[in-house]
Specification:
Helices cover 38% and strands 18% of the residues. By secondary structure, the protein is an alpha/beta fold. The chain folds into 2 domains: 3-112 and 183-255, Rossmann fold (3-Layer(aba) Sandwich); 117-175, no CATH class. Helix 2 packs across helix 3 (83-94) and helix 5 (134-141) crosses helix 6 (148-155). Strand 2 (11-15), helix 1 and strand 3 (37-41) form a beta-alpha-beta unit.
């Protein structure tokens, strides 16, 4: 897995969401690194990490487990957004000895309501071989994706090489594993992660809703849920100040 590190102290591993990369978290990581060692990760099939045909949560959680074992050598605080949040939750449930505290950003331990396949289809429509600039990519995406923020997010996956443009995300693997990505693995009865856990919800997002609270309480009995009212799904990007305040309050409690 491709990673970046900054800061020193207690380790914090950050896992991005679908179509994201560790670069999306560089600003947040820099702020959090004032008091801890922050490791940002490119998940498999994203960014600079290797591609693989398999892209489900057991595989993603196993990747992160190996990273913590080799790069940290002991338990770490793990924070994940969306897809990364589901991987972090499964890691905590299956390998609790590797997770000191858990932060889950705008995702629930349940099936998500939206599918990545529409975005994959939109990205496949872009004739990268005939384009040379991200602005041209945005223009093609705009034909099917009206939201400027979503287009900008997807366009960050465009890499410029001497031979032209290419996607840094493995669209074939995302499409093939789409059902696994929107789902969440079945957890055996009685299994739970009992260490401190924070769920951060975007007030304008539909990914973490009141009906998910029962599952959260069952699987993460020490969890608290904070809602950032004026943020959508990309809470950390849309409301970085309140997001950092919530994370730092939680980490301070956990260190007490």
């Amino acid at each position: 897995m491709a990673t970046s590190e900054t800061g020193a102290g207690e380790p914090l591993v950050i896992l991005h969401g679908l179509f994201g990369s560790r670069r999306n978290w560089s600003s947040i990581a820099g702020r959090l690194a004032e008091h801890r060692r922050v490791i940002t990760v490119d998940m498999r099939n994203h960014g600079e990490s290797p591609w693989d045909d398999l892209h489900d949560y057991p595989a993603l959680a196993a990747d992160v487990a190996r990273l913590i074992e080799t790069a940290v050598g002991g338990p770490a605080t793990v924070m994940g957004h969306s897809m990364g949040g589901k991987a972090a939750m499964l890691l905590a449930l299956r390998r609790p000895e590797l997770v000191e505290r858990l932060v889950v950003v705008d995702i629930a331990p349940a099936r998500s309501h939206s599918s990545p396949l529409l975005l994959v289809k939109a990205m496949r429509r872009v004739p990268l071989e005939t384009l040379s600039r991200r602005a041209e990519v945005d223009a093609v995406l705009a034909e099917v994706i009206p939201d400027l923020a979503v287009r900008g997010f997807l366009a960050q996956n465009v890499v410029t090489e001497p031979t032209g443009l290419r996607w840094s995300v493995n669209l074939d693997a995302i499409e093939r594993n789409g059902e696994s990505i929107v789902g969440f693995p079945d957890i055996p009865p009685g299994a739970a992660f009992e260490k401190p856990t924070l769920f951060i919800a975007g007030g304008r997002s539909e990914y973490l809703r009141p009906e998910h609270r029962a599952a959260i309480a069952r699987l993460f009995p020490a969890a608290t849920i904070e809602t950032i009212a004026n943020a959508g799904h990309w809470v950390h990007a849309e409301a970085p100040g309140p997001f950092l305040d919530a994370v730092n309050r939680f980490l301070a409690r956990g260190a007490a």
